Amino acid sequence: MSDSGLDLQRFLDRLTNRSILTEQEQQAVLDLPFRVVRYDANHDLVRLGEQLNHACFVAEGLIGRFDQNARGERQITSLYIAGDMPDLLSVVQPTATSALVALSNATVLHVPHQAIREAMATYPALAEAFWRDCMVDAMILAQWVVNVGRRNARSRIAHLLCEMGYRYGARSEAGAAAFRLSMTQNHLADATGLTPVHVNRTLKALAADGVSFRGKAVRVENWEVLARVGDFDSNYLQAEMEPQQRLRILQPN
Amino acid sequence: MSDSGLDLQRFLDRLTNRSILTEQEQQAVLDLPFRVVRYDANHDLVRLGEQLNHACFVAEGLIGRFDQNARGERQITSLYIAGDMPDLLSVVQPTATSALVALSNATVLHVPHQAIREAMATYPALAEAFWRDCMVDAMILAQWVVNVGRRNARSRIAHLLCEMGYRYGARSEAGAAAFRLSMTQNHLADATGLTPVHVNRTLKALAADGVSFRGKAVRVENWEVLARVGDFDSNYLQAEMEPQQRLRILQPN
DNA sequence: CGTCGTTTTGACACGCTTCAAGAGTTGTGG
DNA sequence: CCACAACTCTTGAAGCGTGTCAAAACGACG
Q1: Distance (Å, rounded) from C-alpha A52 to C-alpha A87?
Q2: Residue at minimal CA–C1' distance from D17?
Q3: pLDDT digits (tens, 9 = 90+) for A161-189
Q4: What is residue B252's predicted lDDT score, i.e. its pLDDT?
Q5: What is the CA A45 to chain-centroid distance, rounded?
Q6: Nearest by CB: B148 against A136, A148, A235
Q7: Model pTM greater than 0.85?
Q8: Does one domain contain both A139 and A162?
Q9: What is the CA radius of gyration of chain B?
Q10: Residue A252's pLDDT is what?
């Protein structure tokens, strides 16, 4: 805990939403030391090839994982919102193979690898929980391949909006939804493998489906419609799991 | 070990190429029980949504991870060759979110989750090594997003051939390379997010770069040229690591 | 009030898809 | 060992989705 008022509770929640942890194990997560770092939009959290000795936990803002082709055209391969741990893999693989950039102003917690390693050594179930969390990110990544590989512009964008709406927990019973997504149309283009110009035109077309994205505010009149247009099935997100679906493969000692 | 003459050595090699394991830990891997299963081409190893109680290790052949869009168009999101463990994530996430299909006739070892879990409980460093292996697959996945998102057909196919050539260890000093890749042009299309027709035309165009893919045999006159066309940088594969690059974060007890 | 990034619009070009049909290849059963 | 079926691969012609280039309108911010 630090005097910033920030703590690790939301990251623990993320873990316990999918993994079963004992009281002690949960406490070990909350006791991890961290340093609060603020990033302005468009600043790097991690550079390509950098050797890391800490992991980044997102407390606030939107973070993107960036790669690029030979011509320098950027491709966002992952998006991370508050509560996400974009960098868990660095614990086990400290050389960054892609860059992490703040898409909005962001607050990030730097957690020393050493502390995470010690916690995992004491409580192997923590390693399991971290590993599981990484695998959810990998399943999202596989869906992104499908998205850019086998969907047209309209579906791609709709799918991305669905995913983010779902991750923000923005669906409502009425079928409408609204949430803030701190991306420019340029970022949207980089995430969907399109050009900004075409993203702009496609967003205009999506208005006919009751979807608007203006000034970082997403409004969806009918969630079902958007999900159909975006060919979206939330299964891969493994979010909001019922307690009985949560997992632990290592027995508590 | 079984009477089939197959053992787990090559999978242990895969692990120890990136992770440091003690003698005992290595033996624990070799001692894992398994069942040998043969699959004909185009048969499923794992179906979507299936609940698994074993992991699949590829002893021989080519395996693909398949997803699809609403129109049923398929997208291959990962390829696995002999020595790969496509299914490690199922240890920690037993519900399959995509299907695994044999692209060629294949020999697969089914390893019970329970045995893997027991080995990890005894030797936490094994969990670390498995986790690390999963993360390499995730890094490949991120590159695939870049490939389908930000490269044209020629580069996409070249990149895929580069990756597979590299993974097969097929590069030679002379700059030429040749290897067998048991995929049809249809499969290539599914892996690159293109149509079979366009793959066919593009392969023809690649001949001008000294690359041929005829009847599952890939021949590359000049590896450098292919790597340039495919915008390929092998870093993300984390293959062939020098001993001093190998990692262990948990101390041996 | 001016600057810089973002969004919007138009005209045009091109890469890839679609549809269709024929040729080649592989596997199988008689 | 041949004959046939079922995949693969190949080629052509036409259409369309997305990219490219350019410029103007808009908006946020100092």
Answers
A1: 10
A2: A152
A3: 999 999 999 887 778 999 999 999 999 99
A4: 65
A5: 15
A6: A148
A7: yes
A8: no
A9: 19
A10: 65
Which protein residue has its CA closest to C1' of D27?
A215
What's chain A's average pLDDT?
93
Domain count, chain A: 2
Q: Is residue B246 part of a domain?
A: no
Residues A112 and A193 grouped into a single domain = no
Same domain assignment for residues A136 and A204: no
In this prediction, residues A38-50 reach a mean pLDDT of 94
| B242 confidence band (pLDDT: 50, 70, 90) | confident
Residues of chain A in contact with residue B139, where contact means CB-CB under 8 angstroms, are 93, 97-98
> Lowest-confidence range among A40-44, A152-156, A238-242, B244-248?
A238-242
A58 lies in the same domain as A121: yes
CATH number of the domain at A37, please: 2.60.120.10
Of the candidates A65, A97, A235, the beta carbon closest to that of B97 is on A235
Judging by DSSP bridges, how do beta strands A106-112 and A99-102 pair with one another? unpaired
Whether residue B159 sits in one domain with residue B129: no
Same domain membership, residue A56 and residue A9: yes
Strands B106-112 and B99-102: unpaired
Q: Is residue A207 part of a domain?
A: yes
Place of tokens 């045999």: B217
Mean pLDDT, range B32-50, rounded to an integer: 95
> CA–CA separation, B93 vs B51, rounded Å?
9
State the maximum Cα–Cα separation within chain A, in Å, rounded to a whole number.
58
Residue written as tokens 């197959």? B6
- In this structure, the answer to whether residues B132 and B176 fall within a common structural domain is no
Closest by CA to B176, choosing from B218, B205, B216, B214, is B218
Identify the band that residue B81 occupies on the pLDDT scale cut at 50, 70 and 90.
Answer: very high
Q: A241 and A18 in contact (C-beta within 8 Å)?
A: yes
Full residue range of the structural domain in which residue A74 is found: 3-146
DSSP symbol at B245: G
Q: What is the pLDDT of residue B243?
A: 81
